[in-house]
Amino acid sequence: METKVYGKPMYVAGRWVEKEAVIEVKNPQDGSFIAHVPAATENDVLMTIKEAESGAKTAASMPVHVRMAVLHKAADYIEKHRDTFATTIALEGSKTIREANGEVTRCIQTLRLSAEEARRIKGETIPFDQTESGENRIGYYTKFPIGLIAAITPFNDPLNLVAHKVGPAIASGNAIIVKPATATPLSALLLAEAFDNAGLPPKVLSVITGNGRIIGDLLVSHPAIRMVSFTGGLETGEEIAKKAGLKKLSMELGSNSPVIVMKDADMNEAVECTVAGAFSAAGQNCLGVQRIYIEQEVFEQFTTQFVQRTRQYNVGDKLSASTDMGPLISEKEAIRVESWVQEAVLEGAELLVGGVRTGAFYSPTVLVNVPMHCTIAQQEIFGPVVLLYPVNRLEMAIELANNVNYGLQAGIFTANIENAFKAIQGLEVGGILINDSSDFRIDGMPFGGVKGSGLGREGVKFAIEEMTETKVVSFKLGSLKG
What we know:
six-stranded mixed β-sheet; Aldehyde Dehydrogenase, Chain A, domain 1; ALDH-related_metabolic_enz; globular; alpha/beta; oxidoreductase
């Protein structure tokens, strides 16, 4: 497949804007040049915000049926140009072409779901006479758009995670400025192209490209921005919280996801699900399986099967349909992962398979006996590495699973309903999957975590809740005339 080299302008208030200063977008697989995008300045950000303030008024006045039509038309455009979207995701990021096609499908579903949820933004009547002072009053509460939203998105799902912010924002009548990951801006610009072709009014959506330190700080701290929706790392999320000021924050900050395997589990299913959950997208997935706690009686069996299946994982060319896993997003990230594994091995961990780096590629890696104080046991690895631990009982597994500053999602494999409910009650997470790995999500479910995993919930309906405010209306009877 021939790769075209081209420049892609950024999308500012309905206009495609080029700049002399540019940022190169490269294929992490081989470092080849794909495209360049504008390197926005602080003045570009200020101009974009000013235009978007006007766009927020336009968005708020859009009838619901118009919002729905635009969202459906954008989804239609993506469906029509599916191959372009999928190839772009695979070229600029880490996903294989199979994974990229799956992301395109999910993006289409996210936008269509956003259109459907737009019709369900509603309030309720309030029985004011529940107190003596409320007698002779009737009223209700309604929802209204928050205004202007800044969205900062990561590289690992460069299309659908942008759609998860843009779709609900448009559905709820807001304007939004997107700052995509510097490594993977092209997918977000293609999404803007879809909305441009769908007839979205100018100034409602902007996708501004550039260095996060230059434009990101200004975006999150500007008083005209009423909400920041961020997906990324914990350290950056904490910095945003300090700089944002008095505005809404919705942040998904990753995890160190645990899975528990009980002795009564279906071993074949548990192995297959957790291998895929650990190594899909080269492990660069906030829901990726990082720690697996296996009941002692089946630890050896599970470990043997897990290693065998890991050895079968096909690592190679992202654009090949037979490839299971491609490279990490950069050689720098692969070197970081390598260093964390080496640290664990020096501290006494045993490497069962993997541990080999070639450029940005890092082989699927399985470790046992990893001390709990090691970086790789406490932090989010965001790479294709999984840690296996034996446990004597479920309570011990739950205690160890909770022993990190993350709590996004977890999984448990068991045939015992009591075990399942003990895990549901005991695990400190935003979501728990029974007889599934932590790596499962549909775009309509509430998605988010506790502790260092973030604030608020995504998922279209729940993102709309975050992106709207509540207004109470009360009529005092007897004082109004027809």
